[in-house]
Amino acid sequence: MMGVSNMVRLDYFTMKPNLKTFGAVILFVVAFWLMRTSLTLLLINCAWYMALISTNVFAVEEKDGLRRLYGILPLRTRAMILGRYVFVILIYVVATSVVLGLSLIVPGREPITLGGAFLSMSASLLIFSAIVGAQMPFFFRLGYNKGRFYAMIPFFTVMGLAAIPSLIGETLALFSWAINNQTMAGLLMFALSIAILTLSCVVSLFLYEAQR
Amino acid sequence: MINALELADVSKRFPGFYLERLGFTVPQGYIMGLVGPNGAGKTTTIQLILNMLKPDSGHIKVFGLDPRGHEMQIKEDVGVVFDSLMFVDGWTVDDTEKAISRFYRHWNTKAFAGLIEQFELPRKKRISDFSRGMHMKLMLATALSHEARLLVLDEPTSGLDAVTRDLFSEILQDYIKDGERSVLFSTHISSDLERIADYITFIKDGKLFYTGSLENLMENFCLIKGKPGQLTDDLETEILGLRVTNMGFEGLIKTEKARKFGDILIDQPSLDEIVVYASKREGKNDGCFKHGQA
Amino acid sequence: MNIILSNGSGVPIYNQIKEQIKAQVLSGELGEGEMLPSLRQLAKDLKISVLTTTRAYNELEAEGFIQSQQGKGFFVMPSGSELIREQLIREVEENLTSAIQAAGRASLSEAELYDLLRLLLEVEKND
Description:
The complex is a heterotrimer.
Chain A: H1 2-15, H2 19-36, H3 39-54, H4 56-63, H5 66-72, H6 77-105, H7 114-142, H8 144-163, H9 165-180, H10 182-211
Helix pairs in contact in A: 1-6, 2-3, 3-6, 3-7, 6-7, 6-10, 7-8, 7-10, 9-10
Chain B: E1 5-14, E2 17-26, E3 31-35, H1 42-49, E4 57-62, H2 71-77, E5 78-81, H3 93-101, H4 109-118, H5 132-143, E6 150-154, H6 162-175, E7 182-186, H7 190-196, E8 199-204, E9 207-213, H8 214-220, E10 221-226, H9 233-238, E11 240-244, E12 249-254, H10 255-258, E13 265-267, H11 271-279
Parallel strand pairs in B: 3-7, 3-8, 5-6, 6-7
Antiparallel strand pairs in B: 1-2, 1-4, 8-9, 10-12, 10-13, 11-12
Helix pairs in contact in B: 4-5
Chain C: H1 13-27, H2 39-46, H3 50-62, E1 66-69, E2 73-76, H4 80-105, H5 110-126
């Protein structure tokens, strides 16, 4: 849809005034990581960090009252929401590609297999999708500030679950299986990410429409 | 000629507020003022017209089309100005045009440039540095640059100086000059409307108080003033917004009713006075029209 | 066509427009067959609502001073000045009638009334 690309473009312009600040912060943090960690850890850090940064567009939207603008423009609600998802994912893709590219240049890296890289990227995508997928419906329904508060709930739930002693064994078993079946695990995680994002998008649309 | 805007029996319920069976029509080529005290339902009405809210009942037609079925078409044809900036703080005028123009099939770059020049807005300065008047001018410029046939303004002139308000009035009159374009102008600065509005819709507490020509409204109501002794019970039931002091009483009354009470002073109210007196909640009479009679 | 409006005079605006147009027709400033500004142009120039100019023009048309031609505009009727003259003569009649009645109440004789009239005409001439 034309609407989706228009919305992505609009979101880009929305974040554009802050581009320099953001760019600098990201670069600084990433440079710091690049020095120290393995590719896997790097990509995983990228995931949660970009999840934080890319949803900032909701903050600007709330601060400047842009929902009214979206209401006036010839822009279908579906296109608006889908466009926002595309924008957020695009930021992750761009940032991760840059980081990946840089890490290949920086010397002193431990060698990694193709399979290992694929696994790491999928894991990264999954983490990003899980965080963003859980948060965005809250942002659409409640706005950024309120949404951020309530969006914490899924995380603490998951972290809480992961910390339960009885489940730790299961988690570790999962890890070892993944490492032994890298391609399979990678594909599964990739598919799961897409599923989460799609579900999240549908839920966001439903919640947003119900508000009217 | 198709009406620019038609509302019939439109209702919307919120916790604590009920917009009840609202109906009015804006014929093509005219200016309609939407007046009423704060919280009366003016902004809700505008949101319903723009499909930002869905009515519980009743129907709305913009150029004969239902907003629920023809949202895109209507939004191409309607220009909107709100009472506060709805663009990103950090944008420049150029950024605004770049961000918005792609959404419209008929964005007119020349018209936009002409208006920006007329309003003397710097193109490359951040709009966070603009004054409130400049914000309004920017919003007006964008609303007028995509061939909109209906201009909807929600309290755009509050807090603006008289010169800017006068400029707005002039632009609106120019806008309807071809007889094809229409304006819905919601404001609580009634003096802005008194000269240029053709029609008035007055909403009070979510209900329609009056809709019809401005002239008719002004002729149908007058101010009645008298000494305390002259205030009979009969008279009191007919007066809206009754105000009693040691000096005497005054209030708003329908002209036809005033004729009965011969020797008390009758005066022509301004639109502002009509709104103020009719909006008061005390008194035995709340004057609302049933089902949109004029 | 020049129209100057007064806000505070208490005379409705559409009425002011009517009277000033009639005056200009009578004085010849607005000639027979001359085209008046369009409803919307007039509204814009005078900064008033379109409905107000519409009412003024409609009433002038009903009274026979101007005529609207589909798609072209409003034009001054040839009989315009005649109609106004008739209206004014009627006004003179009415005023004279009330003067006569007032004179009767004041017990003025017919001769005294004629003298008064002649005196006032002299005064008017000298102004």
